[in-house]
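During the reporting period, our protein records have gained a structure token line. A sample record is set out beneath this paragraph:
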Amino acid sequence: MILRRHWPAKLALLGCAGATIVAPAAVRAACREDLPSQTRTADRAIVADDLVRLRDIGPSTMVMFLFGSPFGVSPDGTRIAFQVRQADPVANHFCLAMVVLDLRDPRRRKIVDRGGGMIRWKAPLGALADYPSGEAKLITPIWSPDGKRIAFLKQTGRHAQIWIAGEQGRSRAVTHAENDVDAFTWSRDGQSIVFRSRPGLAAARDAIEREGKDGYLYDDRWGPRASNRPWPSEPISYEIQSVSLGGTVRRPTPAEEALLGPPRDDATADGASWASRTKGALAWIAPADRVKTFSEGQLKARLADGPVLTCEAAACRGNFQGVWLSPDGHTIWFLHREGRAESETALYNWKPGAEAPTRIFATQDRLGGCAPVGDALICALEQSRRPRRVVKIHPPSGKITEVFDPNPEFAQLRLGQVERLEWRNDQGIDIFGDLVLPRGRKPGEKLPLVIVQYDTRGFLRGGTGDEFPIFAFAERGYAVLSLQRPGYVSDIGKPKDEEERIKRNYEGWADRRSVMSAYARGIALLDRLGLIDPDRVGITGLSDGSASAQFALVNSKLFAAASLSACCEDPKTLFPLLGNNGTRYMRKYRYPAYTDSSGAFWAAYSIASNASTFQTPLLLQASDDEYMLALETYASLRDFDAPVEMVVFPGEHHTKWQPAHRQALYRRNLAWFDFWLKGETVLARPDEISRWSAMRQARHGLRASP
């Protein structure tokens, strides 16, 4: 996959800055436990906390693996290093451990560093620089040339710094920069580390602070929904420095600076990803279609300073998940999405010059974050009923061997059964989803259904954003449909340019109608199978999933209850809260001007514009940098005594990251749907029961006048 530099319709993928949780020494001591035991534990039913406390390797979302691997491979290929992260919702922090594992005997593994706070991903949001999110940053340890140490990013204060550790278990910081270290690598002699940072960010923030003494100009630097002051704006340059193992910082030589960038020239300038295993050998993915939101890629290679070779076979074009070179640099391995609605991931090898690659295997499981180790790949593997673990794949044979399971006790938990379903929506677009049914369902029993969105590849944890605990819902007697978002309507044919692509998706809300059809036909399929009660269906969603659910709630009677995050888009508040940059962005997507007469546009989408007839119980659980976007919806529904509740989480940024908040989200979502779909209050708190009961009474009584 090649990521294009524009967001989906939900602009707010990232939120404003907030404090990093760093555990005090007394709390950190609770994390000083060994790696998980492989011994068998007692069988029992899964509960939501089992999902909260899973040990993770790498970012929570696999899309972040498009930027690299969480596995650092030793120079001799015998060991790997990686970070294990586990949430503690009681202390509201993460237990972090840097692990070194011997691939010759995976039972030999050692923790070489503990502690620190979870480092979160930051990226530009339009013109705004270094915007934070709730997603974990990809942390990749890098081995010294002699294989005696690893270097990695660790955050114990305000900024992420470079630490080093040896296999004796002693670790220490080698940088003390006044800003985050962004990237780094070892010098060729292993006596220093070359690193990159953005000291200009601190200068930009200082300038904004000084400007405040005279009052801030309201301009393109503002995102009012997220901050009450301007934000540092791009471009802000990077600075590359070198630090000795003793901590002395100096300017790097040109050769040292070049170490931070991959080998790249005019031949690969259009590449979105590339790999190199031997000098002069390159493989990369070039964008094949610059119009699509997620552009198709095309595999290209150049061997030993020869000509650029393009693989023209169908399997060499499309959505890629990684590309690597074999040790001799003559064979390329790559992961490619294919099958119906791209529901499968296939591993191929290609010898440049050959007409077609060879498919080694295809799977509905999720592979990502791979790193080459000799003639094999070390990857993260997820399955629908099994969390992420470390595996070794031998490309010539396709053999997969488990290397490390960070959650061995999960195998003893009793889970609902999972079945992959496929259907088409009214546009003829292929749809797939994973149906999870509760254990012990009685024959003929029609269950309440909860739809979770909008990516169902890999382990079924909590949907995009991880707020809706799928297996915990099933254990409480729900059927759960984990739905993969259908491809964009604009992808049915080939639009000639970006303007036509936008028109196809947004004119008449064509793409949102397509997603709504996927909901409707999926529900109808389950109804025909006699599995669900179509009058007791709930919808959930974050970000793009929230936008699609918002449209379906206004334009259908499919749902008896809803729980949304990062909601909503309404005519009076959207543009003022997004600011100048956000307004220009949304106008590009055919949204009317703020002062336009746009009743028809908003009548088909805005909940606030339909408040007088909207009666679906709606739970809004928002981050504190996005909740204002939901105020018009909330206030309008309150005017008509519609059942609505909003909960705001402090220090969050779109995707919520704090462990205590994850635990609260899980519980409240279970309790909300229990109340409205099943009439149960086991998980609800007394104050919630009182409020929700009053909502239900008002809903069935006379409607109030605003």
